[in-house]
């Protein structure tokens, strides 16, 4: 589905801009990956003995696949609330620079901060990638509404997938469950690799992958934080060194 | 237990969801909203933040592969790592297509598991 031209009168209504955003979920293969991932999260929630409402609420409130998988895995393996919160909190740090880099594309001089709360909540890897592709085709004063539509569309699809996965869980062959859980690392690795623009990004990605198993051998509880900050800082050092 | 009670489940679990799932994740988005406004898009500090964020995401990916949750734990580690490596190689070989990489990585894992019985 193509979006109307930037100066088209079809952008004028708030409702139509919202609907264009919602319909844009069909333009990307990432929506299908996201759907399958959330079928897996629904099934995982069922197998860890959480309620359906819990699973749906975690999709709507957390809205980040890896954080939900980490939370389920931590609570399922008997970790304390603090350990689980720490693991989720560390995995969420990546959302900070994503929000920081998307907001300048949404803002106009008249924009209030509270108008940006909902778009900020929707930001996760998929929406972040889509914003860079789609927003240049959306008039600036319609972008917040458009992103709210896109985010709402994605959340509705993922709530449906969570619901389906939760009900299917008991009937899913284990091989299917394993295949769905492998989707998250594969899709995240490849979409991050495609977003690598500078050598520093590549260094951060490769070193981050390599350092985690080393650090996790010490089992500190904040392994991802240690390997992430070390690898990221080395990558930043490479960036500084190359610029000299 | 009524249907509604079964649907909603235990209140404790919902509070844990908010405390251990929602808040520690959402705080980063809201910090990005409140603090990010003043950061220049080209600022050097943002290069560092982005590099750390990328490396942390890499760590999250590695964590799911090294300590796999649920059914993924039934896949032997050489097959898990091999499938992801194969997916990356296909991605690099086929014009950086995320779809081709994901599909081939998945096929290798499913095929390998099926072959091993």
Descriptive notes:
The complex is a heterodimer of chains A (244) and B (117). The longest helix of chain A is centred in the middle third of the chain and has 26 residues. Chain A has 2 domains: 180 residues, no CATH class; 47 residues. By secondary structure, chain A is an all-alpha fold. Chain A is globular and about 60 Å long. In chain A, helix 2 crosses helix 9 and helix 6 runs parallel beside helix 8. Chain A contains 12 helices and no strands. Chain B folds into 2 domains: 41 residues, no CATH class; 50 residues, no CATH class. Chain B has 5 helices and no strands. The radius of gyration of chain B is 20 Å and the shape is flat. In chain B, helix 4 packs antiparallel against helix 5. By secondary structure, chain B is mainly alpha-helical. The chains are: A mainly alpha (244), B mainly alpha (117). At the A-B interface, helix 2, helix 3, helix 4, helix 5 and helix 6 of A face helix 1, helix 2, helix 3, helix 4 and helix 5 of B.
Condensed summary:
Chain A has helices at residues 14-23, 29-47, 52-62, 65-76, 81-91, 95-106, 117-122, 125-134, 143-168, 174-195, 199-216, 223-243. Chain A has 244 residues and is mainly alpha-helical.
Strand and helix map with partners:
The complex is a heterodimer of chains A (244) and B (117).
Chain A: H1 14-23, H2 29-47, H3 52-62, H4 65-76, H5 81-91, H6 95-106, H7 117-122, H8 125-134, H9 143-168, H10 174-195, H11 199-216, H12 223-243
Helix pairs in contact in A: 1-9, 2-3, 2-4, 2-9, 2-10, 3-9, 4-5, 6-8, 11-12
Chain B: H1 3-8, H2 11-36, H3 44-66, H4 77-93, H5 98-116
Helix pairs in contact in B: 4-5
Note the total helix count of chain A.
12
Oligomer: heterodimer
- Class computed from helices, strands and strand pairing of chain A: mainly alpha
Instruction: Assess the beta-strand content of chain A as a share of residues.
Output: under 5%
**Which regions of chain A are unreliable across 5 or more consecutive residues at pLDDT < 50?**
none
């Amino acid at each position: 589905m193509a979006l109307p031209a930037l100066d088209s009168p079809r952008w004028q209504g708030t409702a139509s801009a919202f609907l264009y955003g919602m319909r844009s979920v069909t333009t990307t293969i990432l929506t299908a990956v996201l759907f399958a991932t959330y079928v897996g999260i629904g099934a995982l929630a069922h197998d860890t003995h959480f309620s359906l409402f819990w699973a749906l609420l975690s999709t709507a409130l957390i809205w980040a696949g890896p954080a939900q998988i980490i939370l389920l895995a931590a609570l399922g393996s008997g970790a304390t609330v603090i350990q689980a919160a720490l693991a989720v909190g560390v995995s969420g740090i990546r959302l900070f620079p994503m929000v920081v880099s998307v907001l300048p594309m949404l803002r106009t001089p008249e924009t209030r901060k509270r108008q940006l709360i909902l778009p900020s909540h929707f930001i996760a890897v998929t929406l972040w990638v889509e914003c860079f592709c789609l927003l240049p085709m959306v008039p600036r004063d319609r972008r917040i509404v458009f992103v709210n539509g896109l985010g709402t569309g994605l959340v509705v699809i993922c709530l449906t997938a969570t619901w389906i996965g939760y009900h299917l869980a008991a009937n899913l062959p284990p091989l299917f469950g394993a295949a769905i859980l492998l989707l998250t690392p594969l899709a995240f690795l490849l979409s991050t690799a495609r977003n690598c623009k500078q050598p520093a990004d590549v260094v951060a990605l490769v070193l981050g992958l390599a350092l985690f198993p080393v650090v996790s051998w010490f089992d500190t509880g904040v392994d991802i934080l240690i390997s992430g900050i070390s690898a990221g800082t080395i990558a930043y050092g490479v960036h500084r060194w190359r610029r000299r | 237990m009524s249907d509604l009670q079964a649907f909603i489940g235990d209140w404790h679990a919902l509070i844990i969801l908010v405390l251990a799932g929602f808040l520690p994740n959402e705080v980063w988005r809201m910090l990005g909203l409140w603090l990010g406004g003043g950061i220049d898009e080209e600022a050097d500090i943002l290069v560092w933040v982005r590099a750390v964020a990328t490396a942390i995401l890499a760590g999250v990916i590695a964590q799911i592969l090294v300590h796999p949750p649920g059914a993924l734990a039934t896949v032997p580690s050489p097959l898990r790592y091999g499938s992801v490596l194969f997916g990356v190689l296909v991605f690099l070989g086929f014009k950086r297509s995320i779809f081709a990489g994901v599909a081939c990585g998945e096929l290798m894992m499913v095929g390998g598991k099926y072959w091993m019985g």
